[in-house]
Task: inverse folding
């Protein structure tokens, strides 16, 4: 069950792997991909389900949960726009989610959906505070945190540039450190992620 005004099932042809990846990347720039159902094993950074698991109802509950999360994100944008006056909240949430997905793909460690929602809300409020020149909370021992995992710091900082460009802000290292901290405390292996069914 899903709201046809919010979600659309899009059939795509399976061509070669490069063309498929490009097609999915192009779609993900404009829209969020909830999941992919395929009769073939494909290696893409999206929730993927085998057609047989959908037909025998094995994947139905998980797909419904993913749809519910997607609908929650859309409602979240409306709420944030009203409560904290976040400029173009739908676009902001979209770029945050794309950035978080890039971090997960590049590190091959994935958050649970409920944890991702918490990060999205935190970052939305952070963007709002920066746009309105409000103070942010400094990260204690910032330099130590950066030096403890410098490669992760560089990856996150580079990926956050797409948020900076989209929202016309500069994200301070303190916020990068908060994201690193949350990441190190909550990451899970992709193989253990309950939403990935082989």
Result:
């Amino acid at each position: 069950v899903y709201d046809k005004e919010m979600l659309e099932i899009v059939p795509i042809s399976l061509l070669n792997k490069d063309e498929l990846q490009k097609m999915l990347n192009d779609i993900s720039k404009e829209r969020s991909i909830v999941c992919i159902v395929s009769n073939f094993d494909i290696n893409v950074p999206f929730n993927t389900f085998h057609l047989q698991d959908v037909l025998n109802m094995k994947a139905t509950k998980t797909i419904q949960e993913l749809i519910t999360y997607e609908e929650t994100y859309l409602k979240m944008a409306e709420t944030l726009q009203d409560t904290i006056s976040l400029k173009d909240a739908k676009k902001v949430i979209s770029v945050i989610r794309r950035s978080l997905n890039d971090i997960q793909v590049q590190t091959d460690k994935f958050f649970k959906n409920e944890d991702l929602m918490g990060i999205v809300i935190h970052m939305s409020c952070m963007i709002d505070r920066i746009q309105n020149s409000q103070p942010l909370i400094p990260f204690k021992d910032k330099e130590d945190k950066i030096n403890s995992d410098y490669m992760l710091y560089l990856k996150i900082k580079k990926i956050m540039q797409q948020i900076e460009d989209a929202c016309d802000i500069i994200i301070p290292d303190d916020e990068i450190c908060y994201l690193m901290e949350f990441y190190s405390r909550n990451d899970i292996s992709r193989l253990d992620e309950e939403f990935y069914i082989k």
Remarks:
- The longest strand covers residues 36-38.
